[in-house]
Amino acid sequence: xxxxxxxxxxxxxxxxxxxxxxxxxxxxxxxxxxxxxxxxxxxxxxxxxxxxxxxxxxxxxxxxxxxxxxxxxxxxxxxxxxxxxxxxxxxxxxxxxxxxxxxxxxxxxxxxxxxxxxxxxxxxxxxxxxxxxxxxxxxxxxxxxxxxxxxxxxxxxxxxxxxxxxxxxxxxxxxxxxxxxxxxxxxxxxxxxxxxxxxxxxxxxxxxxxxxxxxxxxxxxxxxxxxxxxxxxxxxxxxxxxxxxxxxxxxxxxxx
Length: 256
Description:
globular, 9 helices, alpha/beta, 256 residues, Rossmann fold, 21% strand, 29% helix, two-stranded antiparallel sheet
């Protein structure tokens, strides 16, 4: 079914990340739907390893310049864009000096999770939502990949609940086996600043607990990895949300 507007929100995509299943799957899904005549956009964080020169990223001045308030602190939102190498598919990068300049993703060189991973996820989610609105582009399908993207549906169904901009968009969540880590215990206060409370994930805030929480805020859950770890598999089997077993990339348009 061509002529759909499909938004991929992801933390990884080939060739910006090279060695993960998620990066490969998102690349293939986005390209397949783009080549079938859909209007496809991809949003991801501009992690420090992504070379602006190699991939020809440039700042979009008309989209940059917003401030997103995280825990009562103003954080400037910078939007960069590039075309997927060799393709006419636009990838938007959410950037901020404080959160995304560092060369590592979620863990320091000793393997410890960054203290501000929670704030980085909040900033990413809100940055994507605000930028889409500024683009004046309304997606039919929002497909989430990677733990940071799980904050998007939580925000859409709480903080942005009275905003009708995304009301007709269907949200798909892909589940992947990602390295587990605790999130800052003060995340409850930070979310409360945005009038978000009562989440089960706040009892034990971790990367995985927020992915599992977000299953309650989407229209369909699908396995991104064919075999999920025990906790994710249990949550997948128990969720009341519509779900689909692992789909190869050729079948993804049936889901949409």
